[in-house]
Amino acid sequence: MTATSPDMGKLKRSHLLHFIDASFGGETPNWYLIGKDIEEMAVELNPDTGTVKNILDETSFTDNGYEPSVDADTYYANTGDSIYEKIKDIAMNRLTGESCKTKILEVIVDKKTGSYDAWIEDCYVKPQSYGGAQGGVNIPFNIAFAGNRHQGTVVITDKVPVFTQNE
After folding, report:
1. What is the rounded radius of gyration, in angstroms, for the C-alpha atoms of the chain?
2. Measuring CA to CA, which residue among 47, 157, 137, 41 is closest to residue 84?
3. For labelling alongside 39, which of 15, 23, 60, 167 has CA 20 to 30 A away?
4. 139-153: per-residue pLDDT in tens?
5. Which pTM does this prediction carry?
6. What residues contact 31, with CB distance under 8 A and at least 6 apart?
7. Of 10, 2, 7, nearest to 112 (Cα)?
8. Strand ranges for 28-140 from DSSP E
9. What is the pLDDT of residue 2?
10. What is the pLDDT of residue 6?
């Protein structure tokens, strides 16, 4: 355990929060918490690495960084969700590029009180399909991280996060 979380122990999955700015570039972020109908979700880091062995039997390693992404495999269309109108718009109007750009906020709740470590980054939200089985209209979407990542802290009041960037 780290010095910042002396009494949390093993973190539950609910201690790693992912929010999407449902304003999609608005002046004030409107954070939507992803996960309501999702049973499993992970940030896939997709490291871009490689090795090459030359004729002298020397191996060189290249590390080109990461191309992180998230698959939100279950999003049931809910007119009460702040993200619904934009997800519908992107899917039904086949929007591309900047029309799909927003921010993702990742928060790790690893202490009982105070502000939490957080990261904010540009991202693109791309629905993968729509429809689904009898249970509801499903619009699964992918989130592709797009850089401009900043570390900071978040205070959550009444389920609303407020991000403060580290200097």
Report:
1. 19
2. 137
3. 23
4. 999 999 999 999 999
5. 0.91
6. 19, 20, 21, 22, 105, 160, 161
7. 7
8. 31-33, 43-44, 47-53, 59-66, 69-72, 101-108, 116-127
9. 43
10. 57
Asked if residue 74 has pLDDT above 60, the reply is: yes
Sign for the pseudo-dihedral over CA of 50, 56, 58, 61: negative
Can you tell me which residue has the tokens 């201690």?
A: 15
d(CA 155, CA 11): 18
| pLDDT at 101 exceeding the cut of 60 | yes
For 114, the token pair is 């105070």
- 41, HSE (Cβ side, Cα atoms, 13 Å): 25
What distance lies between CA 152 and its chain's CA centroid? 15
Q: What distance in Å separates the CA atoms of residue 37 and residue 30, rounded to the nearest whole number?
A: 20
Q: Is 144 helix (H, G, I), strand (E, B) or coil?
A: strand
Report the candidate in 124, 137, 126, 32 with the shortest Cα–Cα distance to residue 83.
Answer: 32
For residue 105, give the amino acid letter.
L
**What is the residue whose two structure tokens read 């403060």?**
164
C-alpha 82/C-alpha 9 separation (Å) is 33
Q: Residue 145, SS3?
A: strand
Place of tokens 């090795």: 51
